[in-house]
Amino acid sequence: xxxxxxxxxxxxxxxxxxxxxxxxxxxAFMMQVIGMMINNTAFVLVWYLFFKIFxxxxxxxxxxxIAINGLVAMVYGLVFSFAHGxxxxxxxxxxxxxxxxxxWPKNVLLGVILSEVSISAVGDLFFGLVxxxxxxxxxxxxxxxxxxxxxxxFLAVTIFVSFLIVSQSVAFWIPNSExxxxxxxxxxxxxxLYPNSSYVGAVRLFFTFVVxxxxxSGVPINILLKPNWQMVLFMLVVACFWLILSIKVxxxxxxxxxxxxxxxxx
Length: 266
Prior knowledge:
This protein has helices spanning 2-22, 26-53, 62-82, 89-94, 99-102, 108-113, 120-139, 143-168, 178-192, 201-210, 218-225, 229-256. The chain is 73% helix and 0% strand. It has one domain (2-256). By secondary structure, the chain is an all-alpha fold. It is built from twelve helices and no strands.
């Protein structure tokens, strides 16, 4: 228990340091946050124009698209506001920059993913929060959905981070694969921003079980629309699978890692 407590204390302190770094230049911070919120709002407006012409897509209306964009932005914002290092793993591997984390007395993977932050992602975080609030008001949701939302958000974040770790760890086996890891990330993110009901058959299965795009967008929204604890449990199983897989893949890759010749202190 004491070891777990020390790890949690270290994560809290690392998060505090990252937040201090983000707020160091307040003007730049505010500009990036506001800019990202405007960018996301423009994307939602495109969907508004779409649904002015086509009133629904297999039962999904404009308010569901607000929810989709809000949830994905919230997941993206939570992960990259505090753990942007998750997206840098392949770069660290390629340039031999994992060395500094191998000598830390803390978990290597945690050290890597908490090593960087993204200021613009804070804009995604705020946009997601506002969008989900608007969606809840428009849909007239009650306490069951309010209780479910944090659980679904936590599971979606877990799946998102885990898939990123797996895709970034490809660099352990395929040299100079930063572009491949980036493409896999876009392959996860892109489909999550479209109506869940538009995916059918083999395509739906692919974006559910191979690339879990729908688990960070459509599936949680469907659960909110029709609260179902069996689906929540299923989503929990999927999240545990991806989490375990990501840790295993990273550890296996770390055994193959060859130290770089770059010397740096952090």
